[in-house]
Amino acid sequence: MKRKIAAAALCILICLVSGTAVWMNARADTPVVYNAEDIYAKSGQTVLYIRILWEDGSLKATGSGVILSPEGLAATAYHVVKEAERIEGTLRDGRVVSPIEVVGYDELTDAALIRLPALPGGNGEGYDYVPVRQTAVLYGEKVFAIGYPMANTPIITEGIVNSPSAEINGRSRILTSAQIASGMSGGPVLDRFGRVAGIVSGSLRTMNNIHLVIGMDDVRALPGAEAIRRLDAE
């Protein structure tokens, strides 16, 4: 009788330990969810204030961008850098990076990739960058947009994915309620895990407070996106 009780107790203990291990393993595999404060703290340094200059140095236009690799590959909206004669960027800490080169773009999708020069005053470790999301966004998912609607003054806004894939003027767009202002074009839309889920493109004029976002598959398809695909595979 005592042996049966001991065997039963051992069986229960094994089940409890096994269940705890599975639970702990599941917790370890669950991505950390961030709020807006965390998202900005983790990603703000990767967002660029972009200035488009005429050859004489006068200002032509402004926009935003986001760094996607330690080598300085960044994404923006094509309409921000279209026919740019000279591009320079400013990091959140005030460092100016110039000249910036356009390495790939698609006018139809409005996606563009730019390459930053060697980081001024850097420590040899390269740029801070933000990881790219590899899966499609979902209806109702919380997202955050970061950009520069005012010179050298970044802002962050919060909203949801209104549609993960809407056909707008012959091209697929993510729709979001995260507020977008002029100057934020080219900035990142991040998911609650801190990954870039899209690039700000513009606003939908037929609906109030619904804004257009370029999907990251369109960015990955651009010439020069090898670094993104390499980081995806790591």
TrEMBL record:
SUPFAM superfamilies the record matches: Trypsin-like serine proteases
Upper classification of the organism: Bacteria, Bacillati, Bacillota, Bacilli, Bacillales
Domain of life: Bacteria
GO molecular function, one term: serine-type endopeptidase activity
KW Signal (keyword) present: yes
PANTHER family according to UniProt: PEPTIDASE S12 (PTHR43343), PROTEASE DO-LIKE 8, CHLOROPLASTIC (PTHR43343:SF3)
Protein name, as recorded: Serine protease
Signal peptide segment: 1-23
Biological process annotations from GO: proteolysis
